[in-house]
């Protein structure tokens, strides 16, 4: 059953209560490999469901537009202090509702409509809000996009510099959603200084790895840092903006009143809990284990003939190009889901297929590492992935169902926060 228990929900709305229980059971029974997903602790779950959700708190601590902030102000100050201490930054804003609004606040703080901005192209591993054409950020600003080399799958920093010098962007984003390699923050910082741009490090995917010392930090290189608070950080679905002192005021004004009204206080509290957890030695070991698992899984997939973008991984994320397997990413992902292995289909660099039916799959190790799986399980997991993809190509549903049963048997020995 769901933990913490939900008796009041189950009684007041049995239909929704059953759905929540079903989702908790589904998460328990599946190997969850979507790299942007994780399991939060019971403490984070409890904080998210508190009476703090009842309170409106427009403004910032000590400067609110509603009375009755005697408790809320200390909650937000606690989250801010923990963020500053954990990441070693001058300033932190814990109010953004999610990663995309956080990035929109960056544009509002430092750009005018029509200004030139620069980010990684979405098909190459970037994010929609880094200036991609279908996003508001690509429609309201003049966006220039960089990518990766076709021969290496890695960013060529000389090409990034040439593009920045030619286009002179106001803001440069580094980071993204499908980057399996270490981000060279010092190199981006040097380019941004040369062209007079604000460097924004979007660390949404790797924030937990940075907090745990398993990935270099952008602090001291990027003036602004944007991140979600879930993914590898193992917090609630929220976001933070961090910066040096010089850029703090502009960011705060962009978040409120620029984009948002009252912050979600229950989420702020859960962020504070997650940041406290991320400051522990246990979390540091977790972050390094995430990377070790990803590398072990990547190596096992390569041994089975799979083509990985950039040849492997330095972090939590693996991007697989299935072109040489004769199957698209979408049918492969659906077959793997039936086999009890949850990941997502994904565009790969220089993909010749359409975005909704791309050539790749994207997978990562944050959630399975939280469950306690280690490098010794990664070859078996790679074997299941390979077997399921082969079965999908042959239409052998019985094989997929058998693998799902084996997955459930394995996971029965690994507790899940949120299910008992």
UniProtKB/TrEMBL annotation:
SUPFAM superfamilies: PLP-dependent transferases. (6S)-5,6,7,8-tetrahydrofolate binds at residues 122, 126-128. CDD domains: SHMT. Residues 10-385 form the Serine hydroxymethyltransferase-like domain. Its EC number is 2.1.2.1. Gene3D superfamilies: Aspartate Aminotransferase, domain 1, Type I PLP-dependent aspartate aminotransferase-like (Major domain). It is found in: Cytoplasm. It catalyses: (6R)-5,10-methylene-5,6,7,8-tetrahydrofolate + glycine + H2O = (6S)-5,6,7,8-tetrahydrofolate + L-serine. It comes from the Bacteria. GO terms for cellular component: cytosol. Its cofactor is pyridoxal 5'-phosphate. One of its GO terms (biological process) is methylation. The record marks 230 as: Plays an important role in substrate specificity. InterPro entries: PyrdxlP-dep_Trfase, PyrdxlP-dep_Trfase_major, PyrdxlP-dep_Trfase_small, Ser_HO-MeTrfase, Ser_HO-MeTrfase-like, Ser_HO-MeTrfase_PLP_BS, SHMT-like_dom. Its main location: cytoplasm. Pathway: Amino-acid biosynthesis; glycine biosynthesis; glycine from L-serine: step 1/1; One-carbon metabolism; tetrahydrofolate interconversion. The modification N6-(pyridoxal phosphate)lysine is found at residue 231. Keywords: Amino-acid biosynthesis, Cytoplasm, Methyltransferase, One-carbon metabolism, Pyridoxal phosphate, Transferase. GO terms for molecular function: glycine hydroxymethyltransferase activity; methyltransferase activity; protein homodimerization activity; pyridoxal phosphate binding. Belongs to the SHMT family. Catalyzes the reversible interconversion of serine and glycine with tetrahydrofolate (THF) serving as the one-carbon carrier. This reaction serves as the major source of one-carbon groups required for the biosynthesis of purines, thymidylate, methionine, and other important biomolecules. Also exhibits THF-independent aldolase activity toward beta-hydroxyamino acids, producing glycine and aldehydes, via a retro-aldol mechanism. Thus, is able to catalyze the cleavage of L-allo-threonine. Homodimer. This is Serine hydroxymethyltransferase. The lineage of its organism: Bacteria, Bacillati, Actinomycetota, Actinomycetes, Pseudonocardiales. The gene is glyA.
């Amino acid at each position: 059953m769901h933990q913490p228990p939900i008796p009041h929900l189950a009684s007041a709305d049995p239909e929704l209560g059953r759905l929540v229980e079903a989702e908790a059971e589904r998460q328990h029974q599946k190997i969850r490999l979507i790299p942007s997903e994780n399991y939060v602790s019971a403490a984070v779950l409890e904080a998210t469901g508190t009476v703090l959700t009842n309170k409106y708190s427009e403004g910032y601590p000590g400067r609110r537009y509603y009375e009755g902030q005697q408790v809320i102000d200390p909650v937000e100050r606690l989250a801010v202090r923990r963020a500053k201490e954990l990441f070693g930054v001058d300033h932190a804003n814990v109010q953004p509702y999610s990663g995309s609004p956080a990035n929109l606040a960056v544009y509002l703080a430092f750009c005018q409509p029509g200004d030139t901005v620069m980010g990684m192209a979405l098909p190459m591993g970037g994010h929609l809000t880094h200036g991609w054409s279908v996003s508001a950020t690509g429609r309201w600003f003049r966006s220039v996009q960089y990518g990766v080399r076709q021969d290496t799958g890695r960013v060529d920093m000389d090409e990034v510099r040439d593009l920045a010098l030619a286009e002179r962007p106001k803001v440069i984003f580094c980071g993204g959603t499908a980057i399996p390699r270490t981000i060279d923050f010092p190199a981006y910082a040097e380019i941004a200084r040369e062209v007079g741009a604000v460097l924004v490090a979007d660390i949404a995917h790797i924030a937990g790895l940075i907090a745990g010392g398993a990935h270099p930090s952008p602090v001291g290189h990027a003036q602004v840092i944007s991140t979600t608070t879930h993914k590898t950080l193992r917090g609630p679905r929220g976001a933070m903006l961090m910066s040096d002192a010089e850029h703090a005021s502009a960011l705060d004004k962009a978040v409120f009143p620029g984009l948002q009204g009252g912050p979600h206080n229950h989420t702020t509290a859960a962020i504070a809990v997650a940041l406290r957890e991320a400051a522990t030695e246990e979390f540091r070991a977790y972050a390094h284990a995430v990377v070790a698992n990803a590398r072990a899984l990547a190596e096992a997939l390569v041994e089975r003939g799979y083509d990985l973008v950039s040849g492997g991984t330095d972090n939590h994320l693996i991007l697989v190009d299935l072109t040489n397997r004769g199957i698209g990413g979408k049918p492969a992902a659906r077959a793997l889901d039936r086999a009890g292995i949850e990941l997502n289909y994904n565009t790969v660099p220089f993909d010749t297929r359409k975005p909704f039916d791309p050539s790749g799959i994207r997978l990562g190790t944050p959630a399975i590492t939280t469950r306690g799986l280690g490098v010794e399980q990664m070859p078996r997991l790679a074997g299941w992935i390979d077997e399921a993809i082969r079965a999908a190509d042959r239409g052998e549903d019985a094989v997929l169902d058998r693998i799902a049963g084996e997955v459930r048997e394995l996971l029965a020995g690994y507790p899940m926060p949120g299910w008992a």
